[in-house]
Amino acid sequence: MIYEKTNNMEVKRINRNRIFRLIYKNEKLSMHEIASCLGMSLPTVGQNLKNLQSEGLITENGVFESTGGRKAKAISCIKDAKLAVGLDITNNHLSLVLVNLSGEIVKSTRVAKIFENSQDYIKEIGELVSGFIETSNIDKSKVLGVGIAVPGILSDDKQTVVYSHALGLADRNGPDFTKNISYPSVLSNDANAAGFAELWNTEAVKNAVYLSLSNTVGGSILLDNRLYPGDNQRSSEFGHMTLELNGRTCYCGKRGCLDAYCSASVLSNGTDEGLYDFFDLLKKGGKKQEKMWKEYLSYLAVAVNNLRMLFDCDVILGGYIGAYIEEYVDELRLLAAEGNTFEPDGSYLKVCRNKREAAAVGVALLHIERFLSQV
Prior knowledge:
By secondary structure, the chain is an alpha/beta fold. It starts with a helix and ends with a helix. The radius of gyration is 23 Å and the shape is globular. 39% of the residues lie in helices and 20% in strands. Strand 4 and strand 5 form a beta hairpin.
C-alpha cells in the first residue's frame, strides 16, 4: 500500500514536470495541445495547469484563433517567476548577472576589483551580491540561488578551489567564496560554466568542445549535453596543450602552451587600451594589428584542428575573443580546413551564442536547470 502511494506520487510529479517543461519550451500552448502532445487526459492536464498557475509559474496569455468552437486559451511560462544570480570572479574584476528562467540577462554589472585571498575580499563579495539583488527591485523569494564562476580547478564536491594560477591559489587554500552569501550557492569552473551556457536548452547540438579565449585560454567538453570533468576535475585545460616545442613562455611557467599564443591578452597587449581598440584598429586597416591577427589566426587554426581531430564534434569559440570573431570565422575555417585530414571545410567551427558574461550566465543556469528538473 505504501509502495502504491509512493508510486502514484512519483507519477504525479513526473506528469507535472512534463507539462511545465512542454510549456516552458513553447511560446504558447493550449490545454488540448498539451494533452495531445503528452498523451494525458484533459482533467489531468487541467488540474496541473491550475496548480502551476496558482504557484505563479504559468499564465493565460491571450487566446488562439477559433477553429469553429470556443477560442482556446493560450498558456505561457512566466519567465521571471524564478531568477538566479551568476558571479564571475577574475583577477581584475567581478561580473554579476541576474537571469530569468529562459536564461536571459535581466540585469548585469561589472566592478573593477583586484582579487585578494582575504576575508575582506570575501566580505565584499557578499555585500556586492546583496546590493545587486536589492537594487534589482525583485521579490527576493524568487531568487533560486547564486552561482560563482572561478578560473580554477575545483574539488570533486565543487566546494573548494583546489588550484587557480590566475588567482594565485594552490594547495587547497581557496577561500570560502560563499561564506557571506545568504542564498543557496554553487561553484563552477568559469570555462565549464560558459560551455554549459552555450549548449543549455538546445536540441540541435549534443556534443561540443567549447574553447574559451579570454585573458587565459580554457574550455569545456560537453558529451550528450553533459560536462565531462575528467578524472581529476581538470579536463579541457586547453590553454596548456603544447602548441610549439620550446616556444613562448606561458604564465604557468612552461613553454609553448596554447595560452601563450591564443589568449585575448596576446591581442589586447597590442594596443594601449585593450581588446576593443585592437579590433577597432584592425577594421581600420592597422598594419600592426593585421600582422598580429594573421599570426593569431594561424595558431588558433592549429588548435581548432587538433580539437576536431580529438573529439570529432563541433568546436565553439567563446570567451572575450568569441565576442569579436564572427566576421572573421570564415577565414579561420579555411585555415583549419587546410590542416584537416578528413574534411574539405571547417563548417564544424562555430561562434558562441553568449557573447557577454557567458561564465556568469552559465553558473546561474545551474540553479535554473535544477529548478526545472524539480518542478
